[in-house]
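Look over this one:
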Amino acid sequence: MRNVISVMMILMVSLLFVVGFKTPEKEMGHYYPRAFVVDKLDYARDKVIVTDAVGMEWEFAECEDWEKGDMVVAIMCDNGTPIMSDDYFVEIQFAGYIDPVAYWSYD
């Protein structure tokens, strides 16, 4: 019985090394920060549409606490792929307000 338990333990440990441990250190490479400005609020779908510095539009739910011009910072996950369109929000935070008229007007 002792040999059976020892063999099972060795097999389980070997399997973990073959499959690989899912450690936070490995996963941290898939997260990155990103800044946005709220562009639109879609109350019908309860979505906030934000734009990042390169002009890509993103959306997330629950628009009741947001206003156009709010600055948003987020932790994003790249889903383990180089394609940016499949990235998703992990955490979203309010970061201030930009007056869109004053910010985007040119003198």
About this structure: Residues 2-19 form the longest helix (18 residues).
